[in-house]
Design goal:
The complex is a heterodimer of chains A (339) and B (783). By secondary structure, chain A is α+β, with helices and mostly antiparallel strands. Chain A has two domains: 89 residues; 228 residues, BirA Bifunctional Protein, domain 2 (2-Layer Sandwich), CATH 3.30.930.10. Chain A is built from twelve helices and nine strands. In chain A, the strands form two sheets. In chain A, strands 1-4-5-9-8-7-6 form a seven-stranded mixed beta sheet, with helices on both faces. A two-stranded antiparallel sheet of chain A has the order 2-3. In chain A, β6 and β7 form a beta hairpin. The model of chain A has no long low-confidence stretch (mean pLDDT 91). Chain B is an alpha+beta fold and 783 residues long. Chain B has a seven-stranded mixed beta sheet, sandwiched between helices. In chain B, strands 3, 4, 5, 6, 7 and 10 form a six-stranded antiparallel beta sheet that branches. In chain B, strands 12, 14, 15, 22, 23 and 24 form a six-stranded mixed beta sheet that branches. In chain B, α6 crosses α7 and α7 crosses α10. The chains are: A alpha+beta (339), B alpha+beta (783). At the A-B interface, α5, β1, β2, β4 and β5 of A face α8, α11, α13, α14 and β28 of B.
Chain lengths: 339, 783
Amino acid sequence: MREQLQNIKASAQAEINEIANAEQLETFRVKYLGKKGVLTDVLKGMGKLSAEERPVIGQLANEIRNFLEESVSKMQTEIKAKELEDKIKSEKIDITMPGEQFVSGGRHPLTLVLDKLKDIFIGMGFSIVEGPEIELDYYNFEALNLPPDHPARDTQDTFYITENVLLRTQTSPVQIRTMEQQKPPIRIIAPGRVFRSDNVDATHSPVFHQIEGLVVDKGVTMADLKGTLDTFCKKLYGEGIQSRFRPHHFPFTEPSAEMDISCPACHGKGCRVCKGEGWVEILGAGMVHPKVLKTCNIDPEVYSGFAFGIGLERVAMRQFDIDDMRLFYENDLRFLKQF
Amino acid sequence: MKVQLSWIKDFVDIDVTPKQFAEDITMSGTMVESVEQQGEDIINVVVGKILKIEKHPDADKLVVCQVDVGEEVVQIVTGAQNVFEGAVIPVAKDNSILPVGKIKKGKLRGVESCGMLCSEEELGIATKPAEGIMILDDSYAIGTDIREALNLNECIAEFEITSNRPDCLSVIGLAREVAATYNKPLKLSVPEVKECGCNINDFVKVSVLDKDLCLRYTARGVKNVKIAPSPDWLKTRLENAGVRSINNIVDITNYVMLEYGQPMHAFDMRFLSGNEIVVRRAKDGEKITTLDEIDRNLDSNMLVIADGEKAVAVAGVMGGLNSEIKDDTAEILFESANFLGSSVRKTAKKLGLRTESSARFEKGLDPHNTLNAINRACELITLLGAGEVIAGVIDVYDKLSENNIIKFRPEKINEFLGTDISKQEMVRIFDTLEIKVDGDNLIIPTFRADIEGEADVAEEVARIYGYNNIPSTLIKGEAIVGEKNDKQKTLDKVMDVFTSMGFYEAITLSFNSPKIYEKLNIEPQNYVKISNPLGEDQSIMRTTVIGSMLDTVAVNYNYRNEEAYLYEIGTKYLKVEGSDLADEKQEIVAAMYGKNVNYYTAKGVLDKLFEQFGISYYEIERETENNIFHPGQTAKILLKRKHCATVGRVHPKVLGNFGINIPVYMVVIDFDAIMENKKTAKTYKQLPKFPAVTRDIAIIVDEEVTVREIEDIIRRTKTNIIESWKLFDVYRSEQIGAGKKSIAYSIVFRSIDKTLTDDDVNPVMDNILNQLSEKFGAELRKM
């Protein structure tokens, strides 16, 4: 019997190394360990053994059973690992195939740039106000120190509705409307649509957008104007940007200035974008004209302020390197999807 | 204004490079648009002489010239018609550069040509189209560099003069700015006039009838006039300023205008009938032919210079052809006058005739300037030997403008600018600008009418001190919090929702054609009309954004974009009776087309938007009145019984009008409705603690019964255990019968305080089914 058991062990040892999959393993398990398996079969003859032999053989049988069970369990783990490995191998895919398309939309590039400007100014304590696009001559011109027959009126080709009503040529009328309704301190920006009777081409449109700014308080200085707009430019174009203020003329500010920044394309070296100047104009600004303050019942002896105006399209064209303004209003999705 | 720098240097000594000059003068307030060094792009071009001309053997229109260019004789082929043997001409030699490009030797129809004979245009100096090769006079030495020969060595600066500085539309005005910028003296001398014996009053009488429009009229006479071309230096100065040289007299008037900024005119005295000048308003219907040989109709708002009979000039705008200087002119009258700016501006505008003269007058000139200017003209007459100046000046005026006086408060200027500039420095700056400091007062020169108050004075200090020397500081005073208001935040959110749904934002212009209503298949609305539009197509302010959106859709359709999801939050302009201004309202318009797009796509957009603003319920009606839309596939959406949105398919006829051949669906929403109905406050609802019971029902109803009607019954059923419901199937078949449909719902029941049993749910289900059967004759379909 001992011999029988030793034979079982030997043949099991030989067989188990041949097992390649779970099925064979199960056959093996049933053959050796099953209720009708060879081990049980042999052990049926235990009754015929003597009392001395029985515990010895019993122990041997247990050892062999343990050996068989361990072998099966070990083999099971190995086969599982192998099967998983095979499965993973078989699941290999072309990871360069296109991903699934999720929908996403987007804001218009002009809106994106405006959002950026709004954020910068809100961070500096400015609020956003609006005004009508169809405007009275009074607000668009007269209250801004542009009386009838003022030569500067000619430079702004105005669309008229009636003699006294027009499409605003600038966002500056919002300055007047704000000062009429609100006492200092005032710190606002007024983005919006403006109109000039220019035919459409790459750099002109009869409708475009400006962002007006106005600050009025006691003791506001031209140095404050410079500081505020310097900060704005650094936030928009980065700390490395240089700016300069050039004297200019606007009827509703005195002193007036235009602000240039070092050309973002060539960093001031001179290129096609800045026409070799190294500078590009970015906005117009100035100290609010005392006459304008007076018109709004704000005493220029007590209060002072500054105002500025930024052309949105120009900033956006520069930002995205767009050379034709018409693209903004055509709304071709192939264009809109780029931002 | 364009000026050669050497002219400015007559009045101020400067020694800087053109680039530096441009930079400095720009930064002190006079924008230098460009500085051009003449001759920079003319290299290896010389004076040559044609020795011999022969026919080209193979080309009828070409000739072969032997040209002496100094060191050698070269062969050049030309097609020009005006060349002749002995002609002195500019020659671009082999390897030369012209503004039009590089010239190299080559063969023309087989004959070697070692350069090119040049026209004025090719040299870049033409004032009119060239009619062949430029023919020079024989005085030039053969072989001389053409730049030297033609004086092409000037540096020309172009200035942009703002409308408040008419004084800078002159060489002297610019020189004054240059002097102030570089802190140099301005060398200005009073013109000296050499007069002959006679008296001007014996020649002509001047009367100014309309002194409101003519503030000053100064006149002088010249006799024994010898009309001749101007000397080269004068011609060059004019031409470099963009003014064509005519003859010595006309050139003098233009020269003085450029130098002093005072427009002038010269009349041939023999054509002044009655030997008089009358400055008066024109008569309505009066006519004049101006120097440009165009007949002009005048009216009584226009000022003219007349003689005893007729108008001889449009005051401040242009002279008349009838008193023009001619080759045999012997006696002239110089006019140096001051006309009211607004009057000249209106006249020029009405006549469509803007001239160098009117451009200056309309900005308001200094009446004190007329005398110096006319004396300068007379000085030049003597200098050029162009005639003898008649003694005496006719000078008609009532009262000339006085100096503005402004309080000088240095501390206030510093306070305003945020600077710490010393009083001495300010005084120095004023001095260079000819502003006199008289104790506490500043006396402003009359040519600076733009300086009216302290802020103007501060600007003068700031710009000469240097804007970039002013410090940059941050605004002091109380801290202000900046933020978006409710409307701005709501707009932002609308955009976010559209972005999340895959829509792209469009921005369109505000104009429409009046024909838009026809195109949209609707009755014209009451619109705001532009009185001076760019064209009929852009002549009204849009009363809806739908047209603009369909244009946008058409653009994308025509570009073959397969699908489009677009929206615009645009302004529409509604005319308000009795008000000058319009009611400007925001309209949200979304449009979509593509493979999987249908009515329910559009409705889903509306639902999502409303959901995001907490609008959970709206009324919906079939829209059949709005002809922009398909009557069978369009809904009218109401909130609190107010029509606030339309969802539907655009009428194929309308799409056809826009050239679109595929179905397009739209959502149109009043932005105000969102503002009025949105619920933004959110509170947490406890998560369910007890399980839900779901019951599916399918009912068969008539085709006419809408889903909304069925859902209204579920919604209004009195119970607190219906949590939600969902339509999951609509089914039609022969078995169900024609004109009928099966509608299937999944209804979810849940209680907040217990697990529901059939005893709880069944009565509610029965109630719903009973109502459906009573109202619509609905039968339960076996599932």
